[in-house]
Amino acid sequence: NSVTGKGSKTLYVTLFLFSDSMEIAKKRSAHGFRGPSKPYRHLEFLSYSHIRSIVDFIDSEDIINGFGLLVRWPEDPQERLLAFKVSGDESQKSAIIKDLSQLLAQTNYSTMAV
User: Fold this and answer.
1) CA–CA separation, 50 vs 84, rounded Å?
2) Which of 28, 59, 69, 108 is found 20 to 30 A from 1 (Cα to Cα)?
3) Radius of gyration of the chain from Cα atoms?
4) Beta-ladder partners of 45
């Protein structure tokens, strides 16, 4: 997956999906003579309860295989759109959206049942 970061720089990220949250991480590059390090650098930890909706972008000249997450963090009253582009094909994007939708539904159901 890729996401546009600050200054419109494209970042290549990996989404780690857990049962109640997800982590957005960037793969570390191997520079110089540094010893073994962690393979990923943490960018954001996101609870599913902060995701308001999943947006499936229609393919256009600007973006292909894109989707977004409409997010509101507790400390920020404004909703933010995190935009992603799946580096694979349409079926991979559909699988990611389906998995995220199921995890969001399970999380929302379990918080409502408590």
Assistant:
1) 17
2) 108
3) 15
4) 23
